[in-house]
User: Which sequence fits this backbone?
């Protein structure tokens, strides 16, 4: 008889808050899929069940479907909605607490064959829809955020013909008016640089497992 598989499940943002912990270890029967893994988590923490809508599943730091098989030793994460030609060098990607350094991002791309460099810097907006926001706190599944940003940058270079792309995203507390994310794209021509920069920031916002929480005048909200 097959022994149950012991699976480590990582929880982020609203899931972590609801469970009161960042990870669960659940036992699954042989042949179980991601949906069965979610059900096991909900049995361990019933309060999670109402949060399934909009979740994405990652197995060993790659997005998979709910029917993906889960085997012993796999690392599973349930992730709430998140907030032409190969590049000439590996993209410079960093997700961490350090302040944004746009000059370093631009310098990492070099200048050979470059005729245009486009930079996007996102800052913490205050006020936001009339509400005061002294700061935002960002949380990330760091290892996967890094790999997703690398794939996003490489794809943008392949589709637009950009020479290179660099990305830096903050985690932790970021004050109003401070940069929280920056993208620099370099290309032979400006159209490709603009296209790559926009494609990357849009994809980072959609796909990278990074979440934010607003801070109001009297604390987190």
Assistant:
């Amino acid at each position: 008889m097959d022994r149950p598989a012991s699976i480590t499940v990582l929880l982020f943002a609203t899931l972590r808050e609801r469970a009161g912990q960042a990870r669960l270890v659940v036992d699954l029967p042989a042949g179980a899929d991601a949906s069965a893994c979610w059900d096991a988590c909900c049995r361990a923490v019933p309060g999670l069940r109402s949060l399934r809508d909009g979740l994405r599943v990652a197995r060993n730091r790659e997005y998979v479907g709910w029917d993906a098989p889960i085997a012993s030793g796999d690392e599973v994460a349930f992730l709430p909605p998140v907030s032409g030609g190969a590049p000439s060098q590996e993209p410079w990607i960093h997700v961490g607490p350090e302040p944004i350094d746009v000059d370093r991002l631009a310098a990492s791309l070099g200048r050979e064959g470059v005729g245009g460099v486009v930079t996007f810097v996102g800052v913490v907006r205050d006020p936001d829809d009339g509400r005061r926001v002294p700061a935002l706190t960002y949380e990330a599944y760091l290892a996967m955020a890094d790999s997703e940003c690398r794939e996003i940058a490489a794809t943008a270079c392949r589709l637009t013909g950009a020479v290179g792309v660099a990305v830096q995203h903050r985690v932790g507390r970021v004050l109003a008016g401070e940069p929280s994310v920056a993208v620099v794209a370099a290309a032979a021509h400006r159209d490709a640089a603009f296209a790559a920069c926009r494609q990357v920031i849009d994809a980072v916002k959609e796909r990278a497992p990074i979440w934010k929480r607003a801070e109001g005048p009297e604390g987190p909200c």
The mean pLDDT is 91. DSSP finds five helices and 13 strands in the chain. Helices lie at 13-19, 34-44, 102-107, 142-160, 190-207. Residues 126 and 133 are 5 Å apart (CA to CA).
